Amino acid sequence: MTEIRADNPFIVQGDQTVLVEVASPRYRDARDALLGFAELVKSPEHIHTYRITPLSIWNARAAGIEADRVVDVLCEYAKYPVPATVLTRVRDYADRYGLLRLVRGEEGLVLECADRPVAERIAREEKVARHLAGRLSPLRFRVDPTARGRLKQVLVKAGFPAEDLAGYTPGESLEVALRDRTGAGDPFTLRHYQRAAAEAFHGNGGEGGGSGVVVLPCGAGKTIVGLACMDRLGASTLILTTGRTASRQWVTELLDKTTLEPEAIGEYDGESKEIRPVTVATYQVLTHRRRRGEPFTHLGLFDSRDWGLIIYDEVHLLPAPVFQVTTELQARRRLGLTATLVREDGREDDVFALIGPKKADVPWKSLEREGWIATARCTEVRVDMDHGLRMEYATADARQRPRIAAENPAKLDIVRGLLARHPSEPALVIGMYVDQVRGLAESLGAPVLTGSTPQRRRDELYRSFREGRIPVLVVSKVANFAIDLPDAAVAVQVSGTFGSRQEEAQRLGRILRPKAGRNQAHFYTVVSRDTVEQDFALKRQLFLCEQGYEYQIVDADQVGSRGNGRE
After folding, report:
1. What is the number of domains present in the chain?
2. What is the value of pTM for the model shown?
3. pLDDT at 82 over 90
């Protein structure tokens, strides 16, 4: 008879999916252990589904999780015996990490194989072989240094990730250190998880350190991790950001928390083209070109100095042209910073190959329990469409329906009601469609910020919001990116980019910086009932559930409306 352990939450299936029963008394501990080596696929109310993939196991191995630990977790929390085929595949995936190593020696850059069968298989993979420059011995291949990135890409796709131990150019040296006190005179020290992340990336300066990704919630200080890595390396640094506002925040933090002087820091964006020992550039300017098909105007920035470190802020948003350049930059140290490794284009394996494996990933709920980020309450509010709009929706084609549902006028009263619930808390109202957010701003009597808002006006609005002179700010998807509004405690999203989990991470992150008092934040999503918005919301919930947040669904009549609540 098959042994059944009723209190255990896992049902491990032969296709490498793991069903997790939320009602199990062991759910939380089991989920936290599972997240180290599996990806959340879907999360309805009672049963969540995770998937074990080669990439999830390789990232786990890079983070120090051995195959035995993965097997132990699956067996410890399984309700039924774990299929032997799953355990075999886990060990197979884990064993492949490290079978191939890129090293540097007297013969130049060399790919070393652990044994002859692996070497023969690699030599016969057409897409791999074209990047090998000759065979030195049965287990060793010469590699052209310019092919280092492309070789790692194709090896990952072939199922054989190469551990890159070839080292990095030191780059131009730079005197930089973290301050003991900020520019304002406040004590400053790294938090324990920030220090651990920087140490994991640096790897004591050895061949195993110097490239990789640090995953931390928005508001947990990813920028500080970047500064700590600069402190350890002492080298000229190129920092790539999502926009000018984010660039200005990096410059502010560099001046506030490091010993760098202003003349050592340059900004490279649409308005300024300064190249200095530390240069902060935007993805937008790097991917600029005059016409489609012409060369990108500013990619030469990557070769403009002898950079010792390149930091990719919000690496999950890395545009394709920067990926292409990064393929050629494998001799430079590379640090990716992100709140989520989920990419909507499915290029997580390219992040692994070209930026590096995951070096640190701190659970959001762990930081919440320690008080480093705010406690968040997540709620979906479902609102009806009137008869006329329902008919318009029913007769529209599939491309028009998401916008019709998103711009449901009935959402305005819900937004008013939600804001009235939190009359003294700074709030963001976030939407995707510019006409919608402008209409909401006018109805609420609140200022609006969109992609066309001039940078000077953006800075004014951010400053007024931080100083409490603006209680509500209505923003388009520009709020998805790194904006520093530490006092924001409420976010109401009325429309979004379909089912984007990365967008959910960014928007939730806008309100997670620690708060005085109860340290409580509220995250609302307003959804038109019985439309594609409900399907999108279900996909977006994946990120919240993955981080351990409970997601409440309520009806519109449970919110109510009492004016704008901001008299």
Report:
1. 4
2. 0.84
3. yes
